[in-house]
Design goal:
Chain A: GO terms for molecular function: ATP binding. Chain A: InterPro entries: AAA+_ATPase, ABC_transp_ATP-bind, ABC_transporter-like_ATP-bd, ABC_transporter-like_CS, Oligopep_ABC_C, P-loop_NTPase. Chain A: Belongs to the ABC transporter superfamily. The complex is a heterotrimer of chains A (322), B (334) and C (323). Helices cover 31% and strands 24% of the residues of chain A. Chain A is built from 10 helices and 12 strands. An 8-stranded mixed β-sheet of chain A has the order 6-7-8-3-9-10-12-11, sandwiched between helices. In chain A, α3 runs parallel beside α5 and α4 crosses α5. The longest helix of chain B has 38 residues. Chain B is globular, with a radius of gyration of 24 Å. Chain C is built from 10 helices and 11 strands. In chain C, β4 and β5 form a beta hairpin. The chains are: A alpha/beta (322), B mainly alpha (334), C alpha/beta (323). At the A-C interface, α5, α6, α7, α8 and α9 of A face α6, α7, α8, α9 and α10 of C.
C-alpha cells in the first residue's frame, strides 16, 4: 500500500496569450502552477476543484497528452518527461485514461470489439486470437456480455458506453488509471453502478487511480486521499476522512459547505463565496484565494502561501492554519 | 475593432506582394522570349536584342521585379501591344463596367438568396421549402450561357421588353465621370439615361446572379437551421418574442458569418470577370477585356488584367474579414 | 386548491417521429401554489423538461404535441392557446431559465439589448425607463457594474454571471411562475450555491412561484418544499420534501436517494439501481420501473399502478392500500 508509484513535483503549465498586431506575448495563463503530489500503488487519489482550476490539465500532463512547461513526473522511478516519444509509448501502456464523455471518446464507426482491441494492437500484445479472447474477457469484466463486441457505440446507453471506455483502458493491463470526470455525464442511478465497478476492478486488478471530478461526494466515496485545487494550485491534500470531516483551508471549507446535501433536515449555514474564480491570466497577488476568502488577513494578499505539512500529516497552503 | 482592422490590413501586405510576384512571373512562364512574342516570328535577332534591352529584360530577375513593383505602385501598368495605349487608363472603364454588373448581380443574389434561405429554414419541410430548394438546385446546375440566351430570346426577341446587348443604347452615350454609368447618369441628372442603363443591366445581372443566388440560398438555409435550433433562440421565444422578429433579427445575425463567406467568394469570382455573361451580353467588362487580350496575345494587358482581378479578389476578402468583426463581437478576440 | 396558480391535469405530450408516436409525458397532474417552490426530479428522459416546454408552449414544432389534458393558468386552459395569446403570457406571466447559461444568451447582441427586450415586449416604457429597469434587475440578481454590463457581450461574462443575466431576463416582467430547468447543473458548486441562494431570495421577495426541474436530489432537499418525482413520463411519487427524503414510498425514489454517495460518511459500496432508464415507449405493459425494481411482484409486470395517497402520493402497488 505504501509503495510509491507516481511522484509529481512542481508541475506547471503556462499558456502564452498572444495579442495585438504583432502577436506579442502579453500575458501568461497559469493553468497549472506548481502542483506536487505522490500516488502510492493500489490507492485512489481524488483531485477536486471547480472548472478552470487545472485538474484536468494536471491529469493530461501526467500522460503527456499536454506537455508540461516545467516540473517532474516520476513514474516507477523514472522521470517520464525526459523520455523520447518511443520510450513514452511504452509508458503509456502502463498509464491509461478514462474520459468524461463516453460517447465522444468512442469512434462511432468501430465496433466495440475493435475499440477495445485497438490499444492491444498498438502495443503489439498477443496475436489476433488471443486479443479477441481478451476482448470477451474484458467485456465480461466490466459487466457487459461477450456478444456486445459486434455492436457499435451508439447502440449502448451512457453507462454502458462508459463501461466500454473502462474496458478499453484495461485492455493493456495498466498500472495507473487517470479517470477524468468519468461519471459526471451519467444519471444518478447509473453513476453508482460505474463507481461500484471502478472499485471492484481496483480490488481485483490492484489498480491505482487518479480520480478527477468536480463532485465532492463522488470523490469522497472513491478516494483514499483527496487533493483540492484552486486556480492551478493544490490548496489542500489529505486523507479523505480527515479532509471531509475537518477541512482546514477556507476554500475547502466553502466548497464543502456549498454542496447541497440530499437531506431536507440538514440545513446548515452555507458559506457563500462572492464572485467568480479569478482568471488564471491575472491571479490575485499573494494567496490566489484571498480576494474571495471570508477570513483573509493582510498577509494573504502579500505573500504566496506554500503547501506545508501539518502535525497530522495533511498538507495545506494557507497562512492562517497552524 | 481598430486593432483587429490594423492587423488585417498588415496581413494584406505579404498577400499583395505574393500576388505581384506571381503575376510578375507569368510573363516569364510564357514559352519563348517575350520580345520574340511581341515582335513576332520574323523579327531579327538585333531587333529582339534591342527590345530586350529597352524593356529591361536583360537585367537580373530581381531587378526586373523591383522595376515592375515600382511601376505597379506608381500606377504604371505598361502599354497594350494592340493599340499602344496606357493600360492603366484603358482598364478602368472595363473594371467599372464589371463592378457595376457584379454589384447589381450580387444585390439580386443576396436579396433573393438570403430570403429564400431564411424562409426555407423557417418553414422547414414545408412546400415552400421544397420549392425553394428545387429552384436553387436548378439554379446551381443551370449553364449561364444557356440561361442568358433564353433570357434574350424571351425578353428581347419575343417580348421586346429589354435590350439584348451592350451597356447602353448605341444611340445614346453616357458622359463618363466615374465610368460607373449608374452613378454618372445620376450625377448629371439624366434620369432617362439612368433608366436606360438599368434596363441594360437587368438581364446580364440576373444571369450572373443565378448561381450565387442558389449557393447563397442553400448556405443560408443550412446556417439558419443550425441557429434556429440553438438555445438562445429558445430563450427569445420564452421571452414572448414574435417568430418573424426572432428569425430576422436574432437568428440572421448569428447565421450570417458563413453566408458572408459565400457572398465574399462569389463576389470575388464575379469581379474576376464573368467572361460568359459578358460575352453573351456584349458587356464591356474586364472579363471581356482580358479575353480579347488573350485572343490577341497581348501579354501586358493579360498581366495587368490578372493583377487587377487578383487585387479585387483580395480586397473583397479583406472587406469580408472586417465585416466578420462587425457582426460577431467575439471575433476581435481571436 | 383554490390558491394554486398553475394546475396541470392529466397532461400528455407526445413526439411524432418517423417511428410513430412516442409518449414523452404520459398523463401527469400537479399544481403549483402561489409563491411556492415545487421541485420536479427525475433522470434524463423522464419527461421533466418536456413538461416545462409544454407549459411554456415551446415544444419543438411540429414533432412535439400536447395530445391530452389541461394546463390551467389562473383558471384558464392554456394548453391549446393561440400562438399570439401565448406570446403575451410567455416572458410576462410565465418565465423560464435554462440549463446552459453559456449558450442560452445570443452571442452577437449585448446584455442590454437582450435584457430590455422582454421589458419592451410586455410593457410600454421609454428607452430611459427600460434602461433603468434593466440596471435595477441586474442589481437585483447581484451583478456588479450594472451600467457597464449592459454594453457587454455574453462571452465577456462567466457562466455564473450569465445565469444571473438569464434570471434577470426571466424576472424582468415580474412573472407569476418561473420555470427553472436544471438552472445550476452546468455551474460549479460554489456558483451553484450562489444561484440557488439568489433564487430563494427572489422567491421570498417577489413571491414568484418557482418550478425547479433538476436531477440533483441535493438541490431539491435544500430548496424545495414540495417534490414531484418523475420516471418514464409519469409521476411516481409526490409529497412534502421531508416525507419523500425520510420515508420514500416508491422504490425508484428510494433507490435514487440510496445511490448518492454521502459527503459525511463513507459507505463501503454504493447502492445502485440495476439496468438503465428505459427508452420512452419501450415498455408496453405494467409498471415502467418493474424491470429495475428490487421489490417487483407479478402484478407489477401486468398492471400499471395508480398515483394514490393523500398528501404523500406514490404510484406503487406496495402502497396502494394506504390510500
Amino acid at each position: 500500500m505504501s509503495e510509491l508509484l507516481l511522484d509529481v513535483a512542481n508541475l506547471k503549465k503556462y499558456y502564452p496569450i498572444k495579442q495585438g498586431v504583432f502577436n506579442k506575448t502579453k500575458e501568461t495563463v497559469r493553468a497549472v502552477d506548481g502542483v506536487s503530489f505522490k500516488v502510492n500503488k493500489g490507492e485512489t487519489l481524488g483531485i477536486v476543484g471547480e472548472s478552470g482550476c487545472g485538474k484536468s490539465t494536471t491529469g493530461r500532463m501526467i500522460m503527456r497528452l499536454i506537455e508540461p512547461t516545467d516540473g517532474k513526473v516520476i513514474f516507477e522511478g523514472q522521470d517520464i518527461l525526459n523520455l523520447s516519444k518511443h520510450e513514452m509509448r511504452k509508458v503509456r501502456k502502463d498509464i491509461q485514461m478514462i474520459f468524461q464523455d463516453p460517447f465522444a471518446s468512442l469512434n462511432p464507426r468501430q465496433t466495440v470489439g475493435q475499440i477495445i482491441e485497438e490499444p492491444m494492437i498498438v502495443h503489439k500484445m498477443g496475436d489476433r486470437k488471443k486479443r479477441q479472447a481478451r476482448v470477451q474477457e474484458l467485456l465480461e469484466l466490466v459487466g457487459l456480455s461477450a456478444y456486445h463486441a459486434k455492436r457499435y457505440p451508439h447502440q449502448f446507453s451512457g453507462g454502458q458506453r462508459q463501461r466500454i471506455g473502462i474496458a478499453r483502458a484495461l485492455a493493456v493491463e495498466p498500472k495507473l488509471i487517470i479517470a477524468d470526470e468519468p461519471v459526471s455525464a451519467l444519471d444518478v442511478s447509473v453513476q453508482s453502478q460505474v463507481l461500484n465497478l471502478l472499485q471492484d476492478l481496483q480490488k481485483k486488478l490492484n489498480l491505482t487511480y487518479i480520480f478527477i471530478a468536480h463532485d465532492l461526494s463522488v470523490v469522497r466515496h472513491i478516494s483514499n486521499r483527496v487533493g483540492v485545487m484552486y486556480l492551478g494550485k493544490m490548496v489542500e491534500l489529505a486523507d479523505s476522512e480527515t479532509l471531509y470531516r475537518e477541512p482546514k483551508h477556507p476554500y475547502t471549507q466553502a466548497l464543502l459547505s456549498a454542496v447541497p446535501i440530499p437531506d431536507p433536515e440538514n440545513k446548515t449555514k452555507r458559506i457563500i463565496l462572492s464572485g467568480d474564480v479569478p482568471s488564471p491570466a491575472h491571479p490575485p497577488s499573494g494567496c490566489p484565494f484571498h480576494d474571495r476568502c471570508p477570513v483573509a488577513k493582510a498577509i494573504c494578499s502579500e505573500e504566496i502561501p506554500h503547501l506545508r505539512e501539518l502535525a497530522d500529516g495533511r498538507l495545506v497552503s494557507c497562512h492562517l492554519v497552524d | 475593432m481598430l486593432s483587429y482592422s490594423i492587423k488585417r490590413l498588415l496581413m494584406l501586405v505579404p498577400v499583395l506582394l505574393g500576388m505581384t510576384i506571381i503575376v510578375f512571373s507569368i510573363i516569364h512562364a510564357i514559352p519563348g522570349n517575350p520580345a520574340q512574342t511581341i515582335l513576332g516570328t520574323k523579327a531579327t535577332p538585333e531587333a529582339i536584342h534591342h527590345l530586350n534591352a529597352s524593356l529591361g529584360l536583360d537585367k537580373p530577375l530581381y531587378v526586373q521585379y523591383f522595376t515592375y513593383l515600382k511601376d505597379v505602385l506608381t500606377g504604371n501598368l505598361g502599354t497594350s501591344i494592340q493599340d499602344n495605349n496606357a493600360i492603366a487608363s484603358e482598364i478602368w472603364p472595363h473594371l467599372a463596367a464589371t463592378i457595376e454588373l457584379s454589384f447589381a448581380a450580387m444585390l439580386i443574389a443576396v436579396i433573393i438568396g438570403v430570403n429564400a434561405g431564411i424562409i426555407s429554414a423557417w418553414k422547414k419541410n414545408s412546400v415552400v421549402d421544397y420549392i425553394a430548394m428545387i429552384v436553387a438546385l436548378i439554379g446551381v446546375s443551370m449553364p449561364i450561357f444557356w440561361l442568358g440566351l433564353l433570357e434574350q430570346w424571351i425578353f428581347s426577341v419575343k417580348l421586346n421588353w429589354l435590350p439584348s446587348i451592350g451597356q447602353t443604347d448605341i444611340t445614346s452615350t453616357v458622359a463618363p465621370i466615374t465610368n460607373l454609368y449608374l452613378v454618372d447618369t445620376l450625377l448629371e441628372g439624366q434620369f432617362g439615361q439612368f433608366w436606360m442603363v438599368v434596363r441594360h443591366l437587368i438581364m446580364p445581372a440576373v444571369a450572373l446572379a443565378t448561381i450565387p443566388m442558389a449557393i447563397i440560398a442553400r448556405m443560408t438555409r443550412s446556417s439558419m437551421l443550425e441557429v434556429l435550433g440553438s438555445d438562445y433562440i429558445r430563450t427569445a421565444k420564452a421571452k414572448g418574442q414574435r417568430m418573424g422578429w426572432i428569425v430576422y433579427k436574432y437568428a440572421l445575425k448569428n447565421a450570417f458569418i458563413p453566408i458572408l463567406t459565400v457572398i465574399g467568394l462569389q463576389t470575388g469570382l464575379m469581379l474576376g470577370g464573368a467572361i460568359l455573361t459578358e460575352t453573351i451580353f456584349g458587356w464591356p467588362g474586364i472579363g471581356l477585356y482580358v479575353y480579347n487580350a488573350i485572343q490577341a496575345r497581348d501579354y501586358p494587358v493579360i498581366q495587368s488584367g490578372i493583377l487587377i482581378i487578383a487585387f479585387m479578389f483580395i480586397m473583397v476578402n479583406f472587406i469580408v474579414d472586417l465585416l466578420y468583426g462587425l457582426i460577431d463581437p467575439r471575433i476581435k478576440y481571436r | 386548491m383554490s390558491d394554486s396558480i398553475l394546475e396541470v391535469s392529466n397532461l400528455r405530450t407526445s413526439f411524432f417521429t418517423d417511428d410513430g408516436e412516442v409518449p414523452a409525458v404520459d398523463g401527469i397532474s400537479f399544481s403549483i401554489k402561489e409563491g411556492e417552490i415545487l421541485g420536479v426530479v427525475g433522470e434524463s428522459g423522464c419527461g421533466k423538461s418536456v413538461t416545462s416546454l409544454s407549459i411554456m408552449g415551446l415544444l419543438p414544432h411540429p414533432q412535439g404535441k400536447i395530445v391530452g389534458g389541461q394546463i390551467m393558468y389562473e383558471g384558464k386552459d392554456i394548453s391549446h392557446l393561440k400562438e399570439a395569446e401565448m406570446r403575451k403570457l410567455r416572458g410576462n406571466d410565465l418565465a423560464m431559465i435554462f440549463q446552459e447559461p453559456m449558450t442560452s444568451l445570443n452571442p452577437v447582441f449585448t446584455i442590454g439589448e437582450q435584457l430590455t427586450e422582454a421589458i419592451r415586449l410586455h410593457n410600454h416604457m421609454s428607452k430611459q425607463e427600460q434602461n433603468n429597469r434593466a440596471v435595477e434587475l441586474l442589481k437585483l440578481v447581484g451583478l456588479p457594474r450594472a451600467t457597464e454590463l449592459l454594453k457587454e457581450y455574453p462571452h465577456e461574462l462567466s457562466g455564473g454571471m450569465r445565469q444571473r443575466v438569464m434570471i434577470a431576463i426571466a424576472m424582468s416582467c415580474n412573472p407569476k411562475v418561473l420555470i427553472a430547468d436544471e438552472p445550476t447543473t452546468a455551474l460549479d458548486v460554489t456558483i451553484q450555491a450562489q444561484i440557488l441562494d439568489l433564487m430563494l431570495k427572489l422567491n421570498q421577495e417577489t413571491h414568484t412561484a418557482i418550478m425547479l426541474i433538476t436531477h440533483d436530489l441535493g438541490v431539491v432537499a435544500q430548496v424545495c418544499k414540495r417534490v414531484v418525482v418523475m420516471y418514464g413520463g409519469k409521476i411516481v411519487e409526490e409529497g412534502d420534501v421531508k416525507d419523500i427524503f425520510n420515508h420514500p414510498k416508491h422504490p425508484y425514489t428510494e433507490g435514487l436517494i440510496k445511490s448518492i454517495p454521502d459527503l459525511y460518511s463513507k459507505k463501503d459500496k454504493l447502492y445502485s439501481i440495476k439496468g438503465s432508464v428505459p427508452k420512452p415507449g419501450s415498455i408496453k405493459k405494467g409498471c415502467l420501473f418493474a424491470p429495475r425494481c428490487d421489490y417487483v411482484m407479478d402484478k407489477c409486470k401486468e398492471q400499471v399502478p395508480e398515483l394514490l395517497g393523500s398528501g404523500h402520493k406514490s404510484r406503487c402497488f406496495l402502497h396502494q392500500d394506504e390510500a
